[in-house]
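Here is a tokenized protein:
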Amino acid sequence: MAITHILEQWALDELFLHSRMSFICGPRQIGKTTLAQSHLKRIEQSHSYHNWDSITLKQQFASNPLFFLENMASPVFPETSLPEGSRKWVVFDEIHKYPKWKNILKSYYDEWKKSINFVITGSARLDYLRRSGDSLVGRYFLFKMNPLHPHDLTGFFLDRETIWHPKIPQIPFSEPNKTFQDATNLLYDLTGFPEPVSVGKKDFYERWKNNHISLITSEDVRDLSKISNVQKLQTLLFLLPERVGAPLSLNNLKNVLECAHASVKNWLEALKKVYLVFDVAPFTARLKRSVLKEQKFYFWDWGLLENKGKRFENFIAVQLKRAVSAWNEWGKGDYRLMYVRTKDGREVDFVVTEKNIPYLLVECKKDEKQLASNLRYFKERIEVPFAFQVIESPHFLKQVGKGIFILGLDRFLQILP
């Protein structure tokens, strides 16, 4: 299957950017460079891709700070103001590794923003470093490139004005076609990272996965943190799969790893920074006896999980996280992905909130077609408009109450961006 990231439909849409720079962040090997280069190729501006890891580029910059203007098909001048839809594009990949990169970008943007669209791509370090200082505030929009969704494999065109999000009262359920179903199965069985998906073989993914983890836990963790005990951090990483889907006890991990509570917390933060895991916080409003602190952790790469139930939940967690990013980037609201649990053990896997108001409950049951009692309980208790119980069965859809649905994984994914 060909991969066409739907993120391009807004992160590289000149009319959507309104002259701001596009910052595209995401995990290593998620396809940021490919996305940018494909965009440039389609508009016949491939010469405008510049990788700041290249020694040659650094030499060009040293001799001519405006090197990116040299190969443009037509000259561009600082006073030139081109209408939206006809501006030039320039992609800077990994510029955040260059000293004083923010000042460089600020200078470029302030002088050329009326004639050039600047795209900045990078992984964990770009996302982390952009937060320090405010020299670029108001000059860019940040977009998160998440693991693949079936829409990325099926040539889906997204209409941001009409696509569903949780505050829309009518859900556009429709039966997925075979192409969408095949894409769903491929991603669920492998991973959401483009290269293993393109190859489509489990043995290749296993080799890719080991290399990917080793690279991130050695190089990226070293670059972004002061953690020296990488071996302990890797041990923590291998302990997490069996704890996916449950509130994570740092005290328990502290005892297993024989280290300080603060060390476990720092290691988890490092794993989040390098896009290996992400956390989901508990929703506490409207519940007097809710869990207040313990977060749940999931992997960006669900292929790391062997347990089928946990893998199913992790897969859905990533797709919901991706959807929340998209809804927020489009300006549909301030959405968050959370979970809900009381101290007596009642729980629903996910709740999607907007400004702390719950709009959607999601329970992952894989093979269970009978409604989970907790789903109905929390829908009524915290007054949520919609509650979904997602199962693996293709095409399945059953309404079991007002706003309560049991539906197949493919139907659920089809309504998400």
The radius of gyration is 22 Å. DSSP finds 15 helices and 13 strands in the chain. The chain has two domains: 8-145, 178-414.
